[in-house]
Amino acid sequence: MSTSKPAQHMILTTFMLPAGYHKDSWRMDGSRAEELGNLDFVLELTQMAEAAKLDAVFFGDVVHANTLLRGDIKMNGFYEPVTVLSALAARTKHIGLVGTISTSFSEPYNVARQLCGLDHMSGGRAGWNIVTSSDGFQNYGIEEAPDPATRYRRATEFVDVVQRLWDSWDDGAVIVDRGSGEYLDRHRLHPIDHEGEFFRVQGPLNMPTSPQRHPVLAQAGSSGPGMDLGSSVGDMIYTAQPDKGRSIEFYAAFKQMAKDKGRNPDHVKIVPGILPIIGDTEAEARELADELGRHVHLENGRAQVGADLRMDLSELDYDERIPAEWFRDDDAYGSRYKIYRTKSVEMGMTLRELIVDLARSTGHQWMAGTPSQVADRMVDWFESKACDGFNLNSPFNPGGFRLICDKLVPELQDRGYFRAEYEGATFRENLGLPEVSTSLLPA
């Protein structure tokens, strides 16, 4: 099956946050906040995404309650990714199923089995969003987070081990020879005998090769170590890019990094987030944006912004700006920290404006407008090589996501920038990625 796509075909996934991506949007009438953590609500949203022909639903994850204790239920662990994606696999047919699993708290053998199993259960629609963690270590008996360099060394080794476990079965290892009584050609299973800095893993995997062999690998680090890992192994790169010019620079730099590592840059998809607030008129969209802003809990927002920036903002008035000297020029604070500093220092946002802006975007771009206006911007970014598509952040659920699926996506389809039907049977095929087979692997 051909994996080529029209040049103008975007990738569209959605960040599945049933509470709504816009912080405190769960306070709106009709939010169904009472159902968070249950299957029916998230299944309805996923089936809505599949009906719109989106490439994938993407579940983030956290393994601590720190955000909940600050009054923020948006980025929560209500839906453990492997559990919910396994349930959704049985109730969907085409859409990709991407889950976040941190390399900081898991073991490669377990993750290799979980994702291989999900790929089998879904018929080849599994994806893994690879992250390292900076919080939650105390829940695993570790007093403090390792430094970023150590976390990324562990992540690099972790992913390598997982991929080698997926490749520990040759193609054709399952023979089901009833006459001889041999289910497997055991000569086609290979121990990996890995001994590294962080892991010792014998292998082989105890599960047959899954439909994709390698589930799609997503990665979301935009720092130096994150870009190094993503350009080495990522099929799809999630990134926060609120500025078109900088996104163009990031896109070009990332593709070049992948090319320098011997990879086809067309097989590394750059997918920034966007939060579209949609109305039939621009005035209607802006009124909806204002309504969402009025639901933001300012005092909880102060605590959340302070935690994100690692600052004590308790004495700062809402209409004051964060002093420029409070910010640090330290790459260890991450790419989003730099975005917040730009908005506060260069754009001059007050604390109140910053709280509401971050409630909407968390570092991503957002836009209020008609379906045509939002599509114009998305097409402009796509044609300018600022991205290969977008991760759609639904501002509120279910209503905000229904507007995206029923109004924005059809606008992009009518213009020829998005599919009308799924092209392939697997997630990799729908992304336009090549199949993975042992014949393509290094000796």
Automatic annotation (TrEMBL):
FMN binds at residues 61, 100, 152, 222-223. Keywords: Flavoprotein, FMN, Monooxygenase, Oxidoreductase. It holds the Pfam family Bac_luciferase. GO terms for molecular function: monooxygenase activity; oxidoreductase activity, acting on paired donors, with incorporation or reduction of molecular oxygen. Gene3D superfamilies: Luciferase-like domain. Residues 31-383 form the Luciferase-like domain. CDD domains: Nitrilotriacetate_monoxgenase. Belongs to the NtaA/SnaA/DszA monooxygenase family. This is Luciferase-like domain-containing protein.
